[in-house]
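Hi L., both proteins are below.
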Amino acid sequence: MKLCSKCHNSPVPFLMVFVIATIGAFLTWLTLGLSIPEVGPRAGASALTFVVVGGALLMYILNCLKRHCRHEDSDATGTDHHTPAALRDSQVSSRPENVERPS
C-alpha cells in the first residue's frame, strides 16, 4: 500500500499503534502471570497478542491514511484537501460561470 510523501511523514499514528500493542501485550503478560507460572507460554502468548493487535491496528491506520489522503487531488486541481468534497462541489456549482443563463 503506497502512501503519498506528505501522509507518510508523521510518525504519530505508527507510534500510537506501537503503544497500544505494547499495552495489550503487557496486560496479557500480567493476566497470564496469575495462572501460568512458566515464562515460555506467557512470553509466547504476549508476543502473539502484540503481533495480532499491532497488525490489525497497522492495517486500520494505513487504510485510513490512504482513504483520507487528498494531497494528490489538491496538487492537481489546486483545491484545499481539508475542505470536504460535498462543500467543494457546492462551491463549484454555485459559481456564476457554471450557472446556465436564459437566452
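That was the first. Here is the second:
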Amino acid sequence: MSNKFANKLKVSLVALLAFSFVCLTAFQPSRQNFSSRYEYALYRSWQRKAAHLEMLSAQIKPEVVVQKFRTADSKLVEVQYDWEEQRIYGQKEVISLPFPANMQQHKVILENFLYRLNCAQKLFLQNMLQKTEFKVKYKQGGLDSLWSDFAEPRFEIQTIKWQHSQDSLKFQLNSFSGQQLTIEFPISFQFSVYLDEWKEQTTKVVPEIETVTTTPQIPTTQETSPAKLPLVEFLYSTYQNQFRRELMNNKLTDIEHFLVTEFPKHRLTRQENNYYLENDAEFLGLGNFVAVQVKRNNDSWDIEASPYYNLIGDYLKLSSHDSLEIGLVDKAALKQVAGYFPQLLYMHRSLGTKLFNFLLIPDEVPTTLLIHNGKRQRLDFASYDDLLLRLHSYWKKREIFFSLQDIRQMNGFIEFKGMLAAVGKDKYDWAEIRFHLNKEYKIDLVMMSLHVDKKIER
C-alpha cells in the first residue's frame, strides 16, 4: 500500500466518527481530546471517584457530549462535556431538577461545583472557590468541613431549595444521605467576571493526573493460543501484548495462487491489475466479496483495496457490487469520504487471511470494545488497528462477512456503522462497529459491540 494512499486513508479513518451518535454505549476520551492538561486531570479525578458507577449511554453532539451513569441503587448521574473541534474545555454534572429561567447562570455554577466536589482531588474545588464572592456553608464550617465528609463518597442531590433576600440568593442542596449544603450568591454577583478569573486560575495550576485503573483482570491461565481459548479469554490474556501485521511484500511469488489459497471458497477473476474474489454467499445479510489492485514493484508486490466506485443517484456502487446508500450525505462532503468506503469494506472482509496484512489501515484512534457474553465487559485500546490485529489473529479459520450501513450526515458531521460476522462451523461472532467523523473528515471515535459464540441456526 502506498504511503500516500495510506496517509489519506488514515485521515479519513479518524474522520468517520465525531458527531452525534444518538445512543453510544460509552465515551472515553484520551489526553488529546482535552483542551489542556488541567481539563484532562479534572476528568481523570472525577472518573476515579466515580469508578463504581455503571456507564450507560452517551449522546454526542457538535458542541456537547452527555454521558449517563447509574449508581448501585439505580440513581442516574448525567455528566456534560463541552467541546469544540473535539477538544473538551468544560465539564459539569447536570442538575436535572427544575430551575427558574432567571437562575440558569446560577445553575451552571452549581453544576460545575458539584462536578468538582465529586472529584477525588480537593484541588479543583479549591481552585473554583479561590477568587469568588459566593460562599459555601456546610454544617458549622465551609469547604474543609464539606470535604472531610465527601473526600470519598459522592454528593448526590435529591432536592434543591432557593431563597431570595435583599442582598443574596441562597441555594440549599439536600443530598440523598441527608446532608445539607448551602451556596450563597450576592445579588451583585458578576458571572462573566468570575468565569474569566476562574479560567485564569486554571492556567496557573498543574494538577497531578490521577491514575484510573482500566487494565482488565488477566485470567489465571497462561495459554494464549487462539485455538485453545474462547475469544473473550484470548482478548483478556493478550491485552498487554503487542500485535503487528506481517510484512509480506517480498514473500509472494504467484499472486493468483496467494489469493486463491487465502480465499478457497471464492471465485477469482481478473481484469488487468484488478483482482476480484467473488462469493455469492451471505450471512445475516452481509457480504464477503473482495476487490483489490495489484502492482509489481521489482521484487515485491503491493496490494491495495480497489478504489473504484460509481455514484448513481443516492447510492455508491462499488467493484464488489455492494450498494451503499448515501442520500443523507451532502455532495461536497461525499467527495471527501467516498474513496474510504471501499478500503474499509475490503479491509474488514480480509480479516483472518494474509491479505489483511496488505489492507490494514494504521490509525491512532482510541477504541472501546464492549463484549456481550452473558454480561457486559469493556476493553479499551489505543488504536482501532490494535483491536483488529487481535481479531485477525483469532479468526484465522473463520469466514468473514462485513457490510457498511447507516451512512449519514448531521450538523456537518458524518457517521456510519459496520456490521461484521466471523463464521465458524457451528458458531459465529458478530459485531456492530460505530464510526464517527469530525469536521476535517477524520475518524476520532470507534465503538465496537462484540457478541460472541452465537449458535448457527441451520
